[in-house]
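Intended use. Records like the one below are meant for learning the mapping from a protein sequence to its folded structure. Do not use them to infer anything beyond what is encoded.
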Amino acid sequence: MKFESYTCNQYFPFVFSTINKKDNGWQTCFLQATLNSLSESYNPTWQSKHFFGRSEQVHTYTFTDRTIDLSFIIFADSMRQLQNVYERVLWLAQQCYPDYSNENRLASGPVIAMRLGDLFQYKAGFIRSLSYDWNFLGPGGKW
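Structure written out for the chain above:
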């Protein structure tokens, strides 16, 4: 991928990149963050069918749904970095919205690649849910 060379200089790369943007354009969002939690779940789906004359059902594998949930804190050391954090969080939120064609019809949903150190190296997927809290160090936080 084009953006792999950009993450080689980071000790712990934490990057989101677009995959299917219009005009083959791609965008990359590097985050300077610490992880609070990371969990992964797998949910296989099976189709059940009952045949006449059989006492049990026959199960056929359909697909597996994989979900990665993570919580992290993005930090900034200066006012300029805080502006960059704000822009990157908004960029990440924009990846929850689809692209539209020239006729204002839904063209495609956003597909992104995530790199989280060596654990997840450019795993393609989509953002199912995104929420953020602007309170730094609790209510009335320090900016």
